[in-house]
Design goal:
Elements lengths: L4 H14 L5 E4 L10 E5 L2 E8 L15 H8 L6 E8 L5 E7 L5 E2 L12 H14 L17 E5 L4 E5 H8 L1 H7 L13
Parallel strand pairs: 3-4
Antiparallel strand pairs: 1-2, 2-3, 4-5, 5-6, 7-8
């Protein structure tokens, strides 16, 4: 059986939607995924998910931090809504989904139940700000306009589908990340930039 990280991600989204356990999904990509691959929610509670092909790839998360042990010490215990979701081959070539808490790596009984462990928007943003601060600089953006400027975040709920530009989503929802990714220019009053 062959599968990829995206196979795990799509499988998770489809299965949670079928089970009516999800009412918001915002996949992230490029520099905006510095926190994780996607933000998912149910009943205004949010989780952060990093998808991996299999358990073997979980260790690659360590390389994303300036100092993984420092990040773990600071955020363990606050990561109850942050997960690693990965796949394994099941019976009859079915893909099994598994979930672990991000820093403790404690396995969750069911990958589809992680939405029940979401937190409110304020707690989510506080955690995400601290997480991003401890990660290495992404290096995928030089501050120039690129495809990420016109990419969109699509939120899906039972009532509607809404979309805003990825840049605007990051500006509104993750202002510290937006500031970190934006080139700074100082413009004197009444004078154009040189």
């Amino acid at each position: 059986m062959i599968w990829w990280e995206k196979t795990v991600e799509y499988n998770f989204v489809i299965r949670t939607a079928i089970d009516k356990k999800i009412n918001f999904a915002a996949p992230l990509s490029g520099v905006q995924e510095v926190g994780g691959d996607g933000i998912f929610g149910i009943d205004a509670k949010l989780i952060l998910v990093e998808f991996k092909r299999s358990q073997k790839e979980l260790k690659t998360e360590r390389d994303k931090f300036v100092c993984y042990e420092k990040a773990k010490d600071k955020l363990i215990g606050r990561d109850n809504h942050h997960f690693l979701v990965y796949g394994s081959e099941g019976d009859n070539s079915n893909l099994n989904l598994h979930a672990r808490h991000y820093f403790s790596l404690k396995e969750v009984e069911s990958a589809l139940s992680i939405l029940e462990l979401g937190v409110n928007d304020e707690e989510f943003k506080s955690y995400l700000d601290d997480l991003i601060e401890l990660k290495k600089e992404d290096g995928r953006s030089d501050g120039s306009v690129g495809p990420e400027s016109v990419a969109s975040v699509v939120g899906v709920s039972p009532e509607s589908v809404s979309s805003i530009s990825l840049t605007e989503y990051v500006r509104l929802a993750l202002p510290r990340l937006y500031q970190a990714l934006s080139p700074t220019q100082t413009i004197s009053r009444g004078r154009s930039p040189s």
